[in-house]
Amino acid sequence: MATRYRCRLLPALALLLALLCAAQAAAQVRTRGIDVSKYQGTINWSKVAKDSTIRFVYIKATEGTSIQDPMYRTNLKGAKKAGLLVGSYHLYSSRTTAYQQMGNIRKVILKKEQDLVPVLDIEGHHSGRLNMERVDKLLELMEKEYGVKPIIYTSEKLYKTHFATKKYQRYHIFIANYRSYPTTRFTLWQYTERGHCAGISGYVDFSRLARGRTLNDILMPKPKKKTAEQAK
């Protein structure tokens, strides 16, 4: 009798496991993010948030030594108020030092306002003149400021040329590839620059997590609680 029940139970368990796996995979596909800057104009964040697939947003904050996106604070406040997880990105410049760029970043991207790990955006046009000592120093300065290794955003070509080494294994990679699923290691994939969503006029970039990754992977670490000794 016990054997008969076991035989009936095994197919049911297998079916339940398959359904759970399918649900988990579907949930991951449904989780998307966008990134925005002044080029999206005035955004209706309450409309954006009504799309249940959009869970997070990266907002352009700074570029180079002195450029600050004029819509940054408006977008940051609006997205947060709408209930979206918010992160910020800095557009790397080949023309200025890591210290000069960090001075600009520090003024605008405040640690206490970040839900997501900050991103260092290194665009493909830097390929021929990328000073890796400068990049490494900026990554180091950002980690010191925010208490976590920044996410590196780049193209697959640039990743393969400069970041596909053991040295960068501990960094989350944000890959831009608008044609196909990335062939490189990545945590986030920007899969289109021509997305549409309610609340935003024109195009917007859409991203999704890699298979096996969750939003927990890109959340800012929680502040450590002070011990009784440290509180004195």
Relevant terms:
232 residues; TIM Barrel; globular; 8-stranded mixed β-barrel; alpha/beta; 7 helices; 35% helix
The count of DSSP E runs of length 2 or more, i.e. the number of strands, is 9
The CATH fourth-level homologous superfamily: Glycosidases
Task: Indicate the mean pLDDT.
Answer: 88
Rg for CA atoms = 21 Å
Largest sheet: 8 strands, mixed, barrel
- Return the domain count: 1
Residues in helices, as a percent range: 25-40%
Which fold name is given in CATH as the topology?
A: TIM Barrel
What characteristic shape results from the CA principal axes? Answer: globular
How many helices in DSSP terms?
7
- Helix- and strand-based class? alpha/beta
Strand order across the largest sheet: 1-2-4-5-6-7-8-9
CATH class descriptor: Alpha Beta
Strand fraction: 15-25%
Please state the second-level CATH architecture: Alpha-Beta Barrel
Can you lay out the helices and strands and say which pair or pack?
Layout: H1 2-30, E1 32-36, H2 45-49, E2 54-63, E3 67-68, H3 72-81, E4 85-91, H4 98-108, E5 119-121, H5 132-146, E6 151-155, H6 156-163, E7 173-176, E8 188-195, E9 204-209, H7 228-231
Parallel strand pairs: 1-2, 2-4, 4-5, 5-6, 6-7, 7-8
Antiparallel strand pairs: 1-9, 2-3, 8-9
Helix pairs in contact: 4-5
